[in-house]
Design brief:
Structural class of chain A: mainly beta
Order of helices and strands of chain B: EEEEEEEEEEE
Order of helices and strands of chain A: EEEEEEEEEEE
Oligomer: heterodimer
Largest interface: A-B, 26 and 28 residues
Radius of gyration of chain A: 14 Å
Largest sheet of chain A: 6 strands, mixed
Number of strands of chain A: 11
Helix content of chain A: under 10%
Largest sheet of chain B: 7 strands, mixed
Shape of chain A: globular
Helix content of chain B: under 10%
Chain lengths: 114, 113
């Protein structure tokens, strides 16, 4: 079963608007990360938020984490056409067990209309 | 430039013909991993390696093999490819002490006919 589930599955907005994407997960985590993927390309790391953090900023990106609700949100402010991509949240469970892997959600397709 | 390099980018092959997808990183990362990406299923981990000569199965290891003889290389081997292995494959690496923040390769689109 997926550890991370993004919502919505698809989002279409006008350039200049803000885009908010949500991610929910099921078990305790060490950190949560957001990645971007342009069509058919590799994933690019955007931002990481640790379990003891509540909010982080990076440029036009703002990520929040609510461990009590097991959820995170990614806000992209003043969106641009170049932000059009798929966005994935990924959870890192920490050193539990032998494999400290990232578990990805299925992704959100963001379309920013010029 | 720090990067993860996968080859080939595209590959069409026939059922049963052994193939290897190479992955190399130049960042001295201990941790390397292979994922496959399929529509509606997201990314699923195939195999991972915590360091040289240390490999283990991920969520979907069936039909795949890996090796980690050198720190920089982590090839993915399909001994007898089948059509259900048609997918987009990604290699990723990270420092073990820097949990998360993976660097991904550009991907290998494999088609097995």
């Amino acid at each position: 079963s997926q550890q991370g589930e993004e919502d919505p599955q698809a989002l279409s907005i006008q350039e200049g608007e803000n885009a908010t994407m949500n991610c929910s997960y099921k078990t305790s985590i060490n950190n949560l990360q957001w990645y971007r993927q342009n069509s058919g390309r590799g994933l690019v790391h955007l931002i990481l938020i640790r379990s003891n953090e509540r909010e982080k900023h990076s440029g036009r990106l703002r990520v929040t984490l609510d461990t009590s609700k097991k959820s995170s949100s990614l806000l992209i402010t003043a969106s641009r056409a170049a932000d059009t991509a798929s966005y994935f949240c990924a959870t890192d469970l920490g050193w539990a067990g032998a494999n400290s892997k990232l578990t990805f959600g299925k992704g959100i397709t963001l379309s920013v209309r010029p | 430039e720090a990067q993860v390099t996968q080859n080939p980018r595209y590959l069409i092959t026939v059922t049963g013909k052994k193939l290897t997808v190479t992955c190399s990183q130049n960042m001295n990362h201990e941790y390397m991993s292979w994922y496959r990406q399929d529509p509606g299923l997201g990314l699923r981990q195939i195999y991972y390696s915590m360091n040289v000569e240390v490999t283990d199965k991920g969520d979907v290891p069936e039909g795949y093999k890996v090796s980690r003889k050198e720190k920089r290389n982590f090839p993915l081997i399909l001994e007898s490819p089948s059509p259900n292995q048609t997918s987009l494959y990604f290699c990723a690496s990270s420092l073990l002490g820097n949990r998360g923040n993976y660097t991904f390769g550009s991907g290998t689109r494999l088609t097995v006919v």
